[in-house]
Amino acid sequence: MSLGPRPSTVGELKAAGYRTRPVKDEMRANLVRKLREGEPLFPGIVGYDESVVPRIVNALLSRHDFILLGLRGQAKSRILRQLVAFLDEEVPILAGSEVNDDPFRPVSKYGKELLRERGDGAPVAWIHRDNRYVEKLATPDVTIADMIGDVDPIKAARGGHVLADELTIHFGLLPRANRGVFAINELPDLAGKIQVGLFNILQEGDVQVKGYPIRLPLDLLMVFTANPEDYTARGKIITPLKDRIGAEVRTHYPEEVATGTLVTRQEAWTRRDGVCVEVPDFVEEVVERVAFLARADKRVDQRSGVSQRLPITVMETVVSNAERRALALGEDVVVPRISDVYAALPSMTGKMELEYEGELHGPEKIARELVAGAAERAFDARAGGADVEDIVEYFEGGGALQVGEDASSEACVKGFATVPGLLGLVEHVGLASSDARDGLRAAACELALEALVAQKRISRTTSGGYGRAPHEGPAGKGYKGFDPFGS
After folding, report:
1. Which of 140, 229, 263, 361 is the most exposed place for a label (fewest CB within 10 A)?
2. How far apart are CA 300 and CA 304, in angstroms?
3. Which CATH architecture has domain 10-250?
4. pLDDT tens digit string along 295-323?
5. Residue 77's CB: how many other CB atoms inside 10 A?
6. What's the whole-number mean pLDDT along residues 178-194?
7. 3-state secondary structure 342-399
8. Which pTM value belongs to this model?
């Protein structure tokens, strides 16, 4: 509706033909328009188009409150914060109202008295949709007063009101979110008695403030997030509250490596000011596969999940390690290598909760094995079945290669050239052409060697040296108890 200049009084609103509508109707109408016009609904949310997004759309079309249920790092909070896009850009309220009173149907005593005293001359203010979203992180110390409100003796004293007067109410977050979206993150952490306090708003649409014989009707979309682990670890959502939430939408981690890579590429800070950064696609894949392998590793606690933040922070650290090396060596282009992924172990170990068996192995050893396994799969996806016998025979014959993570790309390529067939292999399978920059060729060679390490055909020391894989006995008798990361 085009109103021309924004009305500043209730009378001007009426003259302009403005009609207010419940927030769920408002969001539904804007969602319908976006669907008809083909607008993106949740920009930047990747991998949910055929799973999570349709369920959220159904909830909004049904005018349901809903909860996003999923493990850490699944974009739950980001989705909730994007719900403001389904609100009108601006809506009018009675000026000075703490609860965003509808100019035509105020719910607070302040709003009702203002409308009674000033009538059509009551002043109107306009609030932007960004200010109609209120979010609260649930913690055990949250009180009913925080959520709904309580008596404010100071307000009573300053205004000369008796304590029973509604004008002495200090409104909590719920009333202040009136005519908007109210989100509670980590709902199971909210104490049970506080969850009980949400019954009325979800069912009857009103709240009762302690000590006041009133019911305050509120117009809200209520949304929540929760981690399934929290149901037993720290708390739970009480059954009557779950029953009042209209829809439960399950989130998930990326289901394909390509999808996860898109998320990481979008979120990771890899563009550095004044520095040219070129990340090989296979390095991106290795980083992403580390997370995928961790999510399937029995030594990692799958109830806690492996957050998408792991590949994001690992990629940032990978680029930073390569940047540090390039700056120290005076190289113009930053090209990360697999050794830089090993340098990012501190960004992995803190993001994996381990089972008992994992604790016995230790987080760093597990992280190293995940990197090697990720490199093997990335190499196989590009060069599965390639002839690597010349490379293996070189190391079997006593050959060795020391590649430090701080060595220049040129020095690495010269070292890799001493291994028969290595440079030819990466050129043959398309990892790096003969005229590619040294950084890319070095990274490709490291990928091939790491794949052989994971296959236990050669060994790798923690300092970056490659050599012969230890045998059980005489050459050709097989391998036993091999640790590819033993020094």
Report:
1. 140
2. 9
3. 3-Layer(aba) Sandwich (3.40)
4. 999 999 998 889 999 999 999 999 999 99
5. 15
6. 93
7. HHCCHHHHCCCCECHHHHHHCHHHHHHHHHHHHHHHHHHHHHCCCCCHHHHHHHHCCC
8. 0.87
